[in-house]
Write a structure and sequence with these properties.
513 residues, 63% helix, 5-stranded mixed beta sheet, 5 strands
Length: 513
C-alpha cells in the first residue's frame, strides 16, 4: 500500500496543483475568461433546447454559417451540455476544471508510455514554466483543452502501438476540435521513424513493413467526419478553418482590413513577448541542444520524435499564439525525457556543471514564485473586483428585456457579438468567432460593414437598417468609431438606450413601411 501511494503521490500532487490553481482563478469570478467561451456555452444551450443536430444557424446573419453551418467543435458542445444545469457560467467553469484535470491524466499516461518513470513532478511544474501565457490558455472554455488531452493520449497510443485506441482517439478528435488534422501529420512522422529506426534509435537494415499507424488514425478520423451531424458541410468548414483562414492571415492576402482585425491568437508573437513568456523553456532547449551536440549521445526513437514535434510547434507558436499550449507541453516533456534518459541530475555533480545547475534551479524557483504572485494579484484586489462581471452586461440585459425576438444587432467590433449573444440569445448578430467567416460569405458586404462602422458611409442608418436589417447598433467608445457615434447622436429618432463609460447601445427608428 505504501509503495503504491509513493508511486502515485506525484500524480496526486500534479492534480492538486492544477486543480487548485484553476479553481482559485475560476470560481471567485462571475465571468468567463476570454471571448469564445460565451459563444460555446450559448451554442451548447441551444443544442439542449433544439437538439444536438442543428439544421440551421440563424444567429449569425452575415456569416457563412447563415447558409452553410458547420459545428466545428460539436462534441465539445455535447460535453458542455450536462454542466449547464449548474447555471451557464458555473457549469462552464466546472467543465473547464475537469478538462484541466483530464490534461494532467493524459500527460501522465503519455509520459509513462514514452518512458518517463516519474512524470508527476514535471507535470505539476509545467504550467509555471511559461510565464502567464499558458495559464491564460488553460482558463478558457474552449475545445483546445480537449485537443491537448487527445494529443497526449495519442502519443501514448503511438509509442505503445495500440492501433484500436489510436483509431478511437482520431474519431473523437474529428468530432471535437477543428484542428484534429494535426494528428495525421504526427502519426505519419512517427510511422516513418518507426520504419527506419529501432527503439534505441539505430537505423534498421531494411524499412520495417507492416500496417502503419496512419491507417487506423485515418480510418478513425474519416469515420468521425462521416458521422458528424453536419456532414458533408463539416468538410467544407474544415477546409475554410484550417487552410483558408490560416493561409490568408499568415500571408495577409485576403484584405488589409481583415488582416488587421484577425483574432489576437492568430497573430504572431512579437519577438520580445515571445522570449519573455517562454524564456525558461527556450533556455532549456538551448541547453539541451548544446549538451546533445557536445556529447553526441544516441537519441532513441521517442526522443527523435519529440524533438521533431518540439521544433514544429515552436515554429507554429512563433507564427500564431494559438499553438502556445501545444509547444509548452511538448517541449517540457521532451526536456524531461532528456533529463531522465541521460541522467543529467547525476551529471550535475560534475564540477563544471554545478554552477549551471544552481542557476537553473534558482531561475526555476524565481519563475514559479513570480507566477504564483501574478496569479494571486489577479485573484484579489482592485483589478479582480473591477472585472468581476460579464463584459457589456448592461447592454446585453437591456437587449434581452426590450429587444424583440429575431431583431438584428449591428456591432462595430465583431468580437463583441459573443458577449451580447450570451446575454441576449433571442437576438441576431452579424458574425461570430472570426471576421473571416463574414469575409468568406461576401467580401463586398464585409467592406460595406467596415466602411459603415468607421463612419465613411453617407447614410449609415439606411445601410444598417435596409442592407443589414439591424434595429440596434452596439459600439465601444473608440476613436475608430467616433464618426459613426457622432452621426447617430445627431440623427433624428435615434435613441441612446444604454450609455456607459466604455460602450453605447442605440435603437434606430423603425424603417418606413
Amino acid at each position: 500500500m505504501y509503495d503504491r501511494l509513493k508511486q502515485y503521490l506525484p500524480l496526486l500532487v500534479a492534480l492538486a496543483v492544477w486543480g487548485g490553481m484553476i479553481a482559485l482563478q475560476l470560481f471567485p469570478s462571475n465571468y468567463l475568461h476570454g471571448t469564445d467561451g460565451y459563444y460555446h456555452v450559448r451554442v451548447s444551450q441551444v443544442m439542449v433546447e433544439q437538439g444536438m443536430d442543428l439544421e440551421s444557424f440563424p444567429y449569425a446573419t452575415e456569416s457563412i454559417w447563415s447558409n452553410r453551418f458547420f459545428d466545428k467543435e460539436w462534441l465539445f458542445h455535447v460535453y458542455l451540455m450536462p454542466f449547464l444545469g449548474l447555471g451557464l457560467l458555473r457549469g462552464a467553469q466546472v467543465a473547464v476544471l475537469l478538462l484541466n484535470l483530464g490534461i494532467v491524466l493524459a500527460l501522465w499516461y503519455g509520459c509513462r508510455r514514452m518512458g518517463l518513470r516519474q512524470p508527476g513532478w514535471l507535470i505539476a511544474l509545467l504550467p509555471f514554466l511559461a510565464y502567464t501565457a499558458l495559464w491564460e490558455r488553460l482558463l478558457l472554455c474552449r475545445p483546445h483543452l480537449f485537443s491537448i488531452i487527445l494529443l497526449f493520449l495519442a502519443f501514448g497510443a503511438m509509442v505503445s502501438r495500440r492501433r484500436l485506441l489510436l483509431g478511437l482517439i482520431s474519431l473523437v478528435y474529428a468530432l471535437s476540435y477543428t484542428g484534429h488534422w494535426q494528428l495525421l501529420g504526427l502519426v505519419f512522422i512517427y510511422d516513418c521513424l518507426y520504419g527506419f529506426l529501432d527503439e534505441e534509435g539505430r537505423r534498421r537494415e531494411r524499412f520495417l513493413r507492416g500496417v502503419p499507424l496512419l491507417v487506423p488514425a485515418f480510418v478513425g478520423m474519416a469515420i468521425g467526419e462521416i458521422i458528424h451531424p453536419q456532414f458533408p458541410t463539416n468538410i467544407i468548414g474544415l477546409y475554410i478553418q484550417n487552410v483558408r483562414v490560416l493561409w490568408q492571415y499568415w500571408q495577409g492576402q485576403s484584405s488589409e482590413i481583415l488582416f488587421m482585425m484577425r483574432p489576437d491568437e492568430m497573430r504572431a508573437y512579437p519577438m520580445g513577448e515571445f522570449f519573455v513568456h517562454l524564456w525558461f523553456i527556450l533556455a532549456g532547449l538551448v541547453a539541451a541542444g548544446i549538451y546533445l551536440m557536445h556529447r553526441r549521445p544516441r537519441l532513441d526513437r521517442t526522443l527523435v520524435f519529440m524533438a521533431i514535434c518540439t521544433a514544429g510547434y515552436l515554429f507554429m507558436t512563433w507564427r500564431s499564439k494559438r499553438f502556445t499550449e501545444y509547444f509548452v507541453a511538448v517541449a517540457v516533456v521532451f526536456l524531461g525525457l532528456c533529463w531522465e534518459r541521460y541522467e543529467l541530475g547525476k551529471k550535475l555533480k560534475w564540477r563544471g556543471l554545478k554552477g549551471l545547475g544552481a542557476v537553473l534551479v534558482g531561475a526555476l524557483v524565481v519563475t514559479v514564485v513570480y507566477q504564483a504572485g501574478e496569479r494571486a494579484r489577479h485573484l484579489s484586489g482592485p483589478l479582480q473586483q473591477a472585472y468581476n462581471r460579464q463584459p457589456f452586461q448592461v447592454a446585453g440585459e437591456w437587449l434581452a428585456e426590450h429587444g424583440a425576438e429575431g431583431e438584428i444587432v449591428f456591432a462595430t467590433s465583431w468580437s463583441d457579438n459573443p458577449f451580447l449573444w450570451f446575454q441576449a440569445p433571442e437576438q441576431r448578430y452579424l458574425v461570430f468567432l472570426d471576421p473571416y467567416f463574414m469575409y468568406a460569405q461576401s467580401p463586398e458586404r464585409f467592406a460595406l460593414w467596415h466602411q459603415t462602422r468607421i463612419g465613411l458611409i453617407e447614410e449609415p442608418i439606411e445601410v444598417i437598417r435596409v442592407i443589414f436589417g439591424a434595429r440596434y447598433v452596439f459600439t465601444q467608445r473608440n476613436h475608430n468609431f467616433q464618426l459613426l457615434i457622432d452621426y447617430l447622436d445627431g440623427a433624428p429618432g435615434v435613441e441612446r438606450v444604454v450609455d456607459k463609460a466604455s460602450y453605447l447601445l442605440y435603437r434606430l427608428p423603425a424603417p418606413p413601411p
